Amino acid sequence: MATEKEGGLVFHPLDQFIVKPLFGDGAVHWYTITNVTLWLALAVVAIVALFVIGTRGRAIVPSRTQSIGEVLYGFTYKMVEDVAGKDAVKFFPYIFTLFMFILFSNFLGLIPMSFATTSHIAVTGVLAAAVFLTVTILGFVKNGTKFLSLFWVSSAPLALRPVLAIIELISYFVRPVSHSIRLGGNIMAGHAVMKVFAGFAAIAAISPIAVVSITAIYGLEVLVAAVQAYVFTILTVVYLKDALHPAH
Amino acid sequence: MASGTETTADAAQGSSGMPQLDFATFPNQIFWLVVTLVIIYFVLSRIALPRIAGVLAERQGTITNDIAAAEELKQKAKEAEEAYNQALAEARVEAQKIGAEAKAEIQKELDKAQAKADAEIAARAAESEKAIAEIRAGAVESVKAVAKDTTKEILSAMGSKADAKAVTAAVTARMKG
Amino acid sequence: MEGDIAQMGQFIGAGLAGIGSGAAAIGVGHVAGNFLAGALRNPSAAGGQTATLFIGIAFAEALGIFSFLVALLLMFAV
Fold first, then answer.
1. N or C: which terminus of chain C carries fewer CB neighbours within 10 A?
2. Is residue A88 less than 8 Å (CB to CB) from chain B?
3. Alpha-carbon distance B47 to A48, whole Å?
4. Residue C31: inside a domain, yes or no?
């Protein structure tokens, strides 16, 4: 960490994640309108603006916003179709909802002074748990007990299979944990690092370096925001494929 | 370690530690997240996605139609080109025919004219030959007459009486030789 | 050093956990490098494997994020 100045170098890298009520100073009840609510609502507004208002022309030759929407649609549709197969296409709206929500939340979180909703384990945990539950229930409904063959690696030697089954089982239940922490951790790490460098910028001697670093990290974070949304989505699709076609 | 960091840590611990692990805010976040997701899901699945799918399908249809139309036009252009080529070939054949005919006619006329000219030339040549032969015959006669006269004169000059018959025979023999 | 020994332990632990980020960086670089090597050998097959690439990078990076999380927990939450 940096050397101490007379004012005291104060880091509050995690203060940006504090959930506080938007109006007043009361306790945070489940129905309280907080900054989380505001930025979630802004994500909804952005999505509606792009996909409903942007495409209202239904033009054969698309406008700029409409072609952005179409590119996202085509990209996600192709991903679902390529990775999970034709019969996964009926889950496409579900996956597209996840993808768009995470993408827009990530980018909205990058606006200075904003609140990154996807940096919270509570948010990503719900997303990951929803995916996990959906995929597990779907696997059992579609395949019955044959879904358990996901854990029984039939291509391995018989003696190894119980061991592999335990490993597969553990890795299956670690999925939602890593799924949620990967997204939340990435976003939180990026924002915290930026805040730490912003703290360095208070020291005159290294402030130019700090500002340049913040710029560079910001660029990296833009990339991370898109890549993490993509990774979350494609892992969801891969899990969906496992549920639909459990045979290895 | 700087004491500033410690105070931060203390302050953070004092308030809530990591905000992400402040379980008191979890119900709030989860509630609003679920509301958000439901709204997004319904907006996307009811309004946006069918609309985009419709637009994409429509565009695909339009593109297919346009390509078909373009294909048709191309076919038409090809046909037109073929017809043009055929017409050109026909015209060329016609032109060749006409040319050949004209050439044959000209040749015929030329032949006729040449034959006529040949005949005329032949006639003239014959006439000329005849004239030449006459002239030559005339000349021989004249020479004979002159030779006879001369011989007669010489003989008379030499004092002998010339026998006309002998002189004539001698001159004729001489002329033949 | 005016803090107690437990706090010192926290900070040392956080620093050690930070090493994990570097290890994850090695892992991510390994994945991307091997992908590139394979893609240059067979460029026609590379396009279809970008999804696999991202999944691999995500798995490698998740573990680095775990170590970062441990560092954060030691610093601010324990």
1. N
2. no
3. 10
4. yes
Question: Closest to C2 (Cβ–Cβ): which among B3, B9, B12?
Answer: B3
Q: What is the ipTM of this complex?
A: 0.86
| 8 Å CB contact of B1 and C3 | yes
**Which CATH number is C60's domain given?**
1.20.20
Please say if the pLDDT value at position A236 is more than 90.
Answer: yes
Check A231 against C58: CB less than 8 A apart: yes
B6, pLDDT greater than 50? no
Domain-located, residue C50? yes
Q: What are chain B's partners, defined as 3 or more CB pairs within 8 angstroms?
A: A, C
Question: Confidence band (pLDDT; 50, 70, 90) for C45?
Answer: confident
In which domain, by residue range, is C33 found?
19-77
pLDDT category of residue B3 using cuts at 50, 70 and 90: very low
Tell me the two tokens of residue B23.
């379980």
For residues A85 and A177, what is the distance between their CA atoms, to the nearest angstrom? 26
Candidates A9, A34, A146; CA nearest to B32 is A34
Angle between helices A161-200 and A121-143 (to 10 degrees): 160
Q: Is residue C6 part of a domain?
A: no
